Here is the input.
Amino acid sequence: MTGDLIVETDGGAGRIRLNRPKAIHALNTAMCQGVLDALETWRADDAIRVVTIDHAEGRGFCAGGDIRMLAESGAKDGAEARHFFHTEYRMNHRLFTYAKDTVAFMDGITMGGGVGISQPCRYRVATENTRLAMPETGIGLFPDVGGGWYLSRLPGRIGQYLALTGHRLDGAECFALGLATHYLPADKLPEAKVRIGEGTKAALDSLAVPAPDAAIVARRGKIDHLFAADRLEDIFAALAADDSDFARETLATLKTKSPQTMKVSLKLLLDGKAMPTFEDEMRQEYAVGSRVVQRHDFLEGVRAVIVDKDNAPKWNPPTPEEVSDHLIDQIFAPLPDGEAWTPA
Here is the structure.
């Protein structure tokens, strides 16, 4: 298969390459379905021992999903957006439960959907080029594709910090937090991809190098203190009461994000930490996503950041205090059986 997705085999390896360089390999529905189809084909093929996911030409691993399509659909009946989420989440879940070794090479920008396609993999390779983030609250969305599962399981309150601020992690930080299993110099990736068919872990272990110091680890205590609460208002208050540069800069960042989807994100992580299975997580995220994609803040966020690029979204409600618990409960309500997400 060629086009937006390149699917091929090489000895004992099945290779999936994202191939939308002009969009930094952002995922569309056909790409997600293509990944699903390839995984199903290789599932019963004894010749394929490992599946690798990387990107073809151009910068970045994967910048996310097809945001413009989601906004255009959300402004109408939302059907196309729901179809994308349903397919993407099936892909995420299939990767999470896949029996064979899977390896994601997170070389460069890895955001949103790129996090969703890499984190379910058994092995996740970061490099000096890796920049991983879930920046969705800046466009009135939330860290989906399993974000409620992965971020809630990070040390302390780092997940809450990442979910609300959209902070970018470098490769060393990804490795320190467990979001990457290996740290390799980018110039060693071609060799790793050649050798990986011989034995996944052994090949990666032999080429891995010690990661540099992770800056976020030094801030762990500060982040745990400032983001200790599960109420957005309490986090704002803690930041306002702290006179450090970090607190002031972080509060200024949060004031640019959607109050509604920051509250959605906090509840997502609170629920996600206790979620029994990844399937349950995806079912809840689909219910939330199917509603958020049609709400004002997402349409306004895409307008401000991606369409008009004025970076001046007018959120509604405009403050954390005005986002009611009732509204959040409505967004999180389970969908009826006939509309709910189901695994492939």
Q: What stands out?
A: The longest helix spans residues 79-97.
